[in-house]
């Protein structure tokens, strides 16, 4: 196997707040290979965004603090970098797309000014070349009349078009890694389909590795190759996309899949909701964070945090892991018998 | 006294009268833009002629993309916005022309649940007072009974009745939405207009609230007008579904029928764009990806509002506005009605 592009090991991020220490990310490790799309799924507060902001050096410090871990990209640790060193990496090697394209674009600058900033800085293009490059990028992401529209301001674009501009900006220096944080959540389904298609096309052409953060299981199923499921600041399951949806190993993943209504299936009587509330990140339980809501919990879950261990998958991939003391397939069998 | 008159009027009507009837409802907002010396005036046609019935105990889902007029429809029905044209009947009584005082007795029968569980609860009131307020306004029960009623409702929506002295900020999003539901239920309405009630919630919490709403419907015989942009949520909760586009309903049918056999090209495109949480299905699907975006509702279109994006468009579509036609499965499309059913 080739060396992964990005290696994250035991990343820990916490926030020191008035209400105590909020442990947002509690030791997550993963690899990202070139050209793959890695989905990170989880509910609000599960730490999925914070983990990726940490990779970009965008966690506000204070109150945030990166307590430990490494994130190596081609052997270089991203976490210990100074602001200046990060500037040469951000936008050039790693770029990010945010959820809300209106707040992520500067309303006072034209699209041209915002799109040429990175290429002039990182690639050293002249103003003229940078502008040509910006227009070319806008055309690539499917903005009609790019030559005129490049001189317009963000408010003159619709939500879907703004997200295209964000993608054009993120990809303008041909980064190796693109982090997309809920890129389609603010968009309507028909526009979402356009943007997901666009991201997939661009990935196939440039071979960019994508980290896609989302809470939408449908989006994960349509574009991701591999998926991490996060809960309470930890990875509770890691699998290729087919294994995850067809053979979930962690009770949380299983619950999440069952609680989502589907538009392509006739209505059942009742959704199988996960009872209870997500954990308070300032007061995480001593054991597994999912234990209070877990239908398969055993005594051990209360006091011990399970490690993310490989599971013997029956499917095509061996790269599945889950953090659970209970063998879900056995537990489900017992449940159906009782 | 007014209430008594309302009741007798309703009792005289034949039982066939739907709980809610909306006829050709239009809500237009005037706008002025451009420079002040050369202003450009017009109307945003947020809702442009929609009609439907809701029977007692039924859920009508309204689904569509942002800007299609779903929320404006809700506010038009509730008489929170004065409709520009059209008629709204609640149990046979016309309510769209009423002023606040005239509307007051009807508000016991028709209540609303809002999208944002953070903005729709007063942060300075305790949960007990929030839920008791509609009873005070409508003069129901005495103080002691109201308190008991609040506790009964908290229990009904799955919250601990001891929480009644707490404030909204002490609750999570899903719990706040339950408080909003309790507040709507406290006057024993027959119809609840739900405007995106679960879209701000995480999937696992969303399922809890959907289950609660469906349980309550069975227990209390409620009718819902359920507005959402999520096709999966609508299919799960609604008996009948109306698909909206640019202020109009383009297709209205039983939920199963609509999802299995979508007839309007817009409904087909919408369903085809909706991702399924199943990677194998997702890979094998044939998708119709719509080009372009929803046009602005700031002008009147001579023909079908979907014409510019429609794969089936023909010249006649741009000249004639298609009407919602059909018996149980209604479609507003000239091309579809031509096809043999």
Structure summary:
Chain A is an alpha/beta fold. Chain A has helices at 48-55, 83-89, 101-104, 111-122, 127-140, 146-149, 159-171, 189-206, 217-223, 241-246, 251-259, 300-303, 328-337; strands at residues 6-17, 20-32, 37-41, 64-73, 76-77, 94-97, 177-181, 209-214, 226-231, 234-240, 309-310, 321-322. In chain B, helix 7 links the parallel strand 7 and strand 8 (223-228).
Note the topology.
The complex is a heterodimer of chains A (338) and B (341).
Chain A: E1 6-17, E2 20-32, E3 37-41, H1 48-55, E4 64-73, E5 76-77, H2 83-89, E6 94-97, H3 101-104, H4 111-122, H5 127-140, H6 146-149, H7 159-171, E7 177-181, H8 189-206, E8 209-214, H9 217-223, E9 226-231, E10 234-240, H10 241-246, H11 251-259, H12 300-303, E11 309-310, E12 321-322, H13 328-337
Parallel strand pairs in A: 3-8, 3-9, 6-7, 7-8
Antiparallel strand pairs in A: 1-2, 1-4, 4-5, 9-10, 10-12, 11-12
Chain B: H1 2-12, E1 20-33, E2 40-54, E3 59-63, H2 70-77, E4 85-90, E5 93-94, H3 100-103, E6 110-113, H4 127-137, H5 143-156, H6 173-185, E7 191-195, H7 203-220, E8 223-228, H8 231-237, E9 240-245, E10 248-254, H9 255-260, H10 265-273, H11 279-284, E11 330-331, H12 334-338
Parallel strand pairs in B: 3-8, 3-9, 6-7, 7-8
Antiparallel strand pairs in B: 1-2, 1-4, 4-5, 9-10, 10-11
């Amino acid at each position: 196997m080739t060396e992964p592009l990005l290696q994250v090991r035991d990343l820990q991020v916490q926030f020191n707040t008035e209400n105590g220490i909020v442990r947002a990310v509690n030791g997550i490790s993963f690899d990202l290979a070139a050209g793959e799309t890695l989905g990170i799924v989880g509910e609000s507060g599960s730490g999925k965004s914070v983990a990726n902001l940490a990779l970009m050096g965008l966690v506000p410090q204070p109150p945030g603090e990166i307590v430990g871990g490494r994130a190596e990209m081609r052997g270089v640790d991203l976490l210990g970098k100074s602001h200046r060193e990060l500037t040469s990496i951000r936008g050039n090697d790693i770029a990010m797309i945010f959820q809300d394209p209106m707040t992520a674009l500067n309303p006072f600058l034209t699209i041209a000014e915002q799109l040429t900033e990175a290429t002039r800085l990182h690639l050293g293009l002249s103003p003229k070349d940078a502008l040509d490059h910006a227009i070319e990028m806008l055309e690539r992401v499917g903005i009609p009349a790019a030559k005129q529209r490049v001189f317009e301001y963000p408010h003159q674009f619709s939500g879907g078009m703004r997200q295209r501009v964000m993608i054009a900006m993120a990809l303008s220096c041909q980064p190796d890694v693109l982090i997309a944080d809920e890129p389609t959540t603010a968009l309507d389904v028909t526009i979402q389909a356009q943007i997901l298609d666009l991201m997939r096309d661009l990935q196939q052409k440039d071979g960019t590795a994508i980290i896609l953060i989302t809470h939408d299981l449908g989006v994960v199923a349509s574009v991701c190759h591999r998926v991490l499921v996060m809960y309470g600041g930890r990875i509770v399951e890691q699998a290729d996309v087919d294994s995850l949806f067809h053979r979930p190993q962690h009770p949380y993943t299983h619950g999440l899949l069952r609680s989502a209504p589907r538009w392509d299936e006739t209505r059942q009587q009742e959704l199988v909701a996960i009872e209870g509330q997500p954990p308070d990140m300032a007061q995480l339980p001593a054991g597994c964070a999912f234990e209070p809501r877990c239908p398969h919990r055993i005594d051990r879950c209360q006091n011990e945090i399970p490690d993310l261990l490989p599971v013997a998958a029956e499917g095509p991939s061996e790269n599945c892991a889950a953090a659970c003391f209970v063998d879900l397939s056995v537990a489900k069998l017992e449940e159906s018998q009782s | 006294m007014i209430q008594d008159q309302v009741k007798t009027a309703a009792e005289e009507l034949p039982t066939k009268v739907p709980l809610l009837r909306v006829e050709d409802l239009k809500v237009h907002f005037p706008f002025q833009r451009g420079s002040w010396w050369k202003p450009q005036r017009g109307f945003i046609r947020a809702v442009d002629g929609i009609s439907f019935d809701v029977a007692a105990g039924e859920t009508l889902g309204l689904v569509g993309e942002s800007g299609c007029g779903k929320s404006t429809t809700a506010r038009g029905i509730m008489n929170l916005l004065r409709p520009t044209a059209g008629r709204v009947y609640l149990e046979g009584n016309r309510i769209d022309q009423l002023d606040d005082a005239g509307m007051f007795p009807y508000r016991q029968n028709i209540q609303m649940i809002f999208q944002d569980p953070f903005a729709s609860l007063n942060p300075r009131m305790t949960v007990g007072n929030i839920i008791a307020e509609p009873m005070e306004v409508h003069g129901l029960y005495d103080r002691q009974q109201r308190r008991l009623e609040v506790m009964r409702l908290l229990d009904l929506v799955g919250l601990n009745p001891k929480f009644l002295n707490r404030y909204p900020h002490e609750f999570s999003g899903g719990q706040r939405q339950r408080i909003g539901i309790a507040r709507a239920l406290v006057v024993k309405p027959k119809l609840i207009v739900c405007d995106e009630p679960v879209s701000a919630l995480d999937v696992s919490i969303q399922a809890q609230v959907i289950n609660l709403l469906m349980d309550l419907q069975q227990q209390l015989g409620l009718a819902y007008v359920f507005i959402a942009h999520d096709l999966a949520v609508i299919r799960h909760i609604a008996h009948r579904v109306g698909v909206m586009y640019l202020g109009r309903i383009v297709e209205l049918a039983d939920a199963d029928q609509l999802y299995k056999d979508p007839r309007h090209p817009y409904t087909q495109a919408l369903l085809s764009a909706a991702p399924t949480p199943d990677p194998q299905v997702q890979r094998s699907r044939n998708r119709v990806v719509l080009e372009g975006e929803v046009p602005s509702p700031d002008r009147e279109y001579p023909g079908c509002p979907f014409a510019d994006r429609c794969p089936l468009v023909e010249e006649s579509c741009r000249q004639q506005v298609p009407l919602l036609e059909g018996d149980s499965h209604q479609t507003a499309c000239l091309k579809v009605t031509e096809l043999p059913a």
